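> run fold Holin
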Amino acid sequence: MSNDLHITTEAAKLAPPAVVSALHWGGMTPSSWVTVLTLLYLALQLGLLVPKYVEAIRTWWHRRPGGDA
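> ok
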């Protein structure tokens, strides 16, 4: 059991450098990594914010004078 935990821990430590090496070998420079991570972060933020804004607009629309509700 302890050996399995040790292997998992060491694999987790190795994963980030292995990913960076694979991306560099694939032709991605550090500036490309920053661009990809920034776009991923932006997509995640939009995915979280858009539903909130849609719900806020629907609530406002139904509460205004002459709204559907």
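The mean pLDDT is 83.
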